Each structure stands twice: as C-alpha cells, then as structure tokens.
Amino acid sequence: MDQMAERQHKKRKPEKMAGARTSGHDKEEEKKVKAPSVYLVVGHEVSWATYSVFKVDPYAAAKRGGGGGDEEDPAPVPIPRRLARISAKFCMSFAPVPVRSWIVGVGGDSADEDYAPETIVFDTETRAVIRGPNLLSTKLHPVVLTIGHKIYALARYPSVTGQLDFVPWFEVLDLSQARVVDGHLESCEWKPLPRPPFFPWDLTPLQYLSPPMVTVESYVALASCILVSLSQQEGTHMFDVEKEQWSKLDDNSLPFVRGAVPHGPIFLGLSRAKKTITAYNITVVCQPRSGGTAPSLSIVEFPVVSDREEEILSTPIFLSLGSPGFCSLKSWSDHPTTDDPCTRARIKLMAYHTEEPISQECIESSHGLLIPNQWKQVYEICDSSRELIWQCLITAMSL
C-alpha cells in the first residue's frame, strides 16, 4: 500500500502511574474529570418510530467516589430525566452538529411517507424538536458525517432496483444559512453529490437481474475529505469535499470498521482485525507523481492500553470526550425472555482518562495510548408505555 504503515505493538501492561486513582477520591484528579455533555438516543418499538434523548454525565461515577474499572458492575441507577421524545422514521442515523449544538437524525424507511420527515433536529440548548427538509431519496441507516455546517449522507446499502437506498446515493445539507421558523428549518435543502464510482451502476441486463450487493463498512471524515471502504471490495476511496470529486486513494481497506472518531490529533476506531478500540494517526498527503501530484494515505496504528486488569469495553458505540478521554457504551434488555415486551433495559457506560498530552510522539514512546484511570456506570431505563427495541441504545454523541 502506498505510504500505508500499520504499526502493531505488542500489548503490555504499563507500570501503574504514581497517584493513579481507583475510586475517585483524589480531588486533584477530580478536577480533570470535566467533559462535554453526552447525549444518548434510545429507540422504541412501537407502531410508529419513536426516539428518546437523554443527557448523562460520563464521569458521574468518578464524582461520586466509585465506579473504578476493576470493580464489579455497580448497582444500576435510574437514567436522568428524558429531554425529548422524537417521532420520526425507523432506520434513521444520528449525528451531532457542534457548531449549532444540534443532534440531527437523517434517513429512515419509506413504509409511510406521511408520519415523519427524513430529517429531524433536536436543539440541545432549547430542547426543541425541529422538522428538516426531506432527503432526495430514501436511505436506511445512512452513513452521516458532519464537517463544519455541512451534513453528508451516504447510502449504506446502495440499490439499483426498487426504492431502498436508491439514487441519489450521496447528498449534502448545508446548515450555514439555516433558520428555524415555526418549528421547521428554512433556507436549507438537500443537494445531490457525485455518485460514488465504487457503487454498482453500469450493469449488463443479466447483472441488473441480480445486482451485486455492496455495503459501506468503514468511514472517517477528515478536515477536507471523507474516506470510505466497502465490505465486498478491497481499497479506500476519498471524496474531496472542496472539489466534490471521488478518487481511489489506496488499494487496501481502512483498518477499522464503522466510523472512526477524532480524539485530539488522532482517531479512535474499532479495529477490523482485533475487534478492540484502537488509536490511529490518519493523514492524507500529496505525493509527487509523473505529471503532477496525487494524494496518498498514511495510517499508523497504536493499541489503547489500560493499567487495569479489565479489558477496554470495545463496542460499536464509543465517542471522544475531548482532552480528558473517551467513553464506550453498550445496552441490553433487562427482561427474562425474548417473548416478553421489552420495557426495561440497562446501559453500561465506561469512561476512560487518556494520558496527556496526546501526540504521536507520546503514544510511540509509551507503546500505545495509555489509560491510567477508568470508571463505570450502569443506567436503568424503564418505559412501560412504549416498548424498547432489543438493543435500545441507537447512538451516543458529545456536544
């Protein structure tokens, strides 16, 4: 692979740092457990799709003086009061828009076109639910990425037949001039972007009868580009958001699955090979080639290393908390059998402090991204009026 360097370090248990805390009693450490607000989107299984939004403190256990990572799971506590209940479509994806303090839901199925729009906004400051413009095509669980004021929606399961994830497969919503008028977004609309060349399109009549199946498996948004890899094809593709052009960037796929999230100057992703949360230094640089220059991909991989016996909770739902650290979450049903209505569930949140400062040099010298402190919290959700979906936690994000 051109300029691709995947550095695999043997995981070792580092020496425990002097003053490392296990129970949250150290007041000096407690000053560091400040983090952005974490919002949870929970899904309900009812006749029309409903999502609940909750706000939690990822370091609540540390501030109470407990929840050390090497302890048994603490007794569950009731989740904080719901901020909003949103009626929208099934199969939506959610993404934060930090410049507006918004959580935006995009996509959904097309079973009923009337009961909700395909774009919905929750304003975390005013707690208002705002209707947004419809997408140009249906997208089930689309890949949704935010760069500044723009939201990019890419079909996760592109199709050339029927109405599921049909063209246009790639769209953008510019919120820079958006205004809220009577509970609706105005002065913004979805616009089509160039078709991803790696999606099936130029098919023969025989291929059209049984078109190839394609799924977007890995993706990450950098400052001026979006990188994408597919599960059925090798390689990494790049979309230049300024030129609005697609290009093949590398012959190898991204080394993580799903999305990678920025954490300071690096990224955190769920390793494709190890199935663990891993740190990545990802850069796209222009290399001289015959007749000009061409972009080239460089990825350096580092393990995330804890000084506790307990492994890092590696799940598809994790997020950066800024310079203090990151957290990962999972949910499960709290009822005895799958035949019973799911009205009670639990969400486990693991919060981790990462050693500062975060830089490639520090990570290299420490043989990985070090975690000297970690805490856990278990929340209980009970909703007897609206059944929860089996794994109720749809996503989590920080603002």
Automatic annotation (TrEMBL):
Basic and acidic residues compositional bias, start-end = 15-33
Q: What gene makes this protein?
A: LOC127757062
Q: Which organism is it from?
A: Oryza glaberrima (African rice)
Q: What is the lineage of its organism?
A: Eukaryota, Viridiplantae, Streptophyta, Embryophyta, Tracheophyta
User: Cross-referenced InterPro entries, in alphabetical order?
Assistant: DUF1668_ORYSA, Kelch-typ_b-propeller
Residue segments, region Disordered: 1-34
> What Pfam families does its record include?
DUF1668
Name this protein carries in UniProt = DUF1618 domain-containing protein
Q: What's the superkingdom here?
A: Eukaryota
